[in-house]
Input
Amino acid sequence: MTRYKNPPFFWNLFFILLMGCITDNSYQLPDETSIPTPVIDGHIISIKAVLGMLAQQQSLQGETATLLFTDTNNYMEGYVISTDKSGNFFKKLVLQDKTIAPTAGIVISIDVNPLYTSYEIGRKILVRLDGLVIGIENGVPTLGQLSENKIDKISSFLKDEVLIRINKKEEITPLEIPLEKFGQETLLRYVRISQLQFHEQEKGKTFAAEPYDVYNGERIIESCRTGLLAILSTSVYADFNGVSLPLQRGAIDGVISKDFYGERFNLIINDPTAMLFTEENRCDPEPFICDLVSDETEVLFRDDFDTYKKQEDLENAGYQLKNILGGATLFKSSRYGKEGTRGVDISGFKSGETPIISWLISPKIAVREIEKAQLLFDIAAGYDRGQLLEVFITHQYSGDPLTTAWKKLQNINIPIGPYAAYGAYQSSGVIPIGCIEGDIVIGFRYIGGDASGMTTTYRLDNLTITKSINK
Output
């Protein structure tokens, strides 16, 4: 078979001509004046309207319903709030409906990388809806192409037909919210959350370059106002994945989204400039220290957990078991050894959950007007993979550990257990709590993660409150 081969001279000439065409501005975005004004022969509708159409379909077919647009002649308008320039978003655009005080957002899934060279943050675009399908993917409303009854990425060949750039680029004003508003009502909005810091457990870590980070690094952020916790998620492919987390506190600008499984809300930043951490003083939980100690005491409250065989028994006795990220890892009743007494334990080992934030909340314990009340309990640690347990106290329990003003108990003996076995029970030591006013609630918080290897097992027993018998 004869094959045509271009001679070397041809390629040399081609290369010279090509280099002559390249300028320093070849990879810059087109000037605003060079973007033609599109002629739209159809209806321009809002993101909110598109989401309303999906909601109608879901009311008929359930939450997994999808809606295929055909012969509508509709175009959806929105503003770009995400960028893949730093690699933290990939083959997707996030749009919201307004530059200020947005009320709706949506994801466009498209098989194009990069996207930032055409669709910058603040760019207004029109999305031709005919031929696209909308549904919930990874927990968020997503527009894409229908493929075998699934939402797939829009073909790269359709980019210019489906995503129409408008000669209008505006500043996106972050929607300022407290961490309490972190959820469905602000989903896929560009927000600013102030008074945040990374949890003290995250000190010394990177955004997404720890050995256990797979696909994403998930880091715990906490509110300095309320102590509420949330997750900042960063792709391991982001070009800032190896940057160390800031130690200060401040504000974060980002997009509220959900994790891969669509189960948990998280915050995603476009790049590290979104971390507005300028305050040096951290807001770690207020320590609770009390010096009122009594040598002679009697038991005011005691629970040895022997009568609880399952979760319902603990709950019926007034305990609250809550994994605030929605996972299945909870404190549970267990027997220590074949003939041993029962206690309450927790472990992240083989849970498949990272991170884990799980609480055991005691019933309200009456210590009002008791001057020298003291707390103590027995605790065992095993298969130790780090100090993961904290103990808090409050006299204003709201019913939800996330919205309660806790004080962190100090000087507690939380043992370091053996690496490959269960440790023996040890006393927590006597913890004076008589300085607090009113009836109290004790909270045990476990923060760990299976993939991160933070899976220490803890066992609790003999939760006891004593009071002084001295007058």
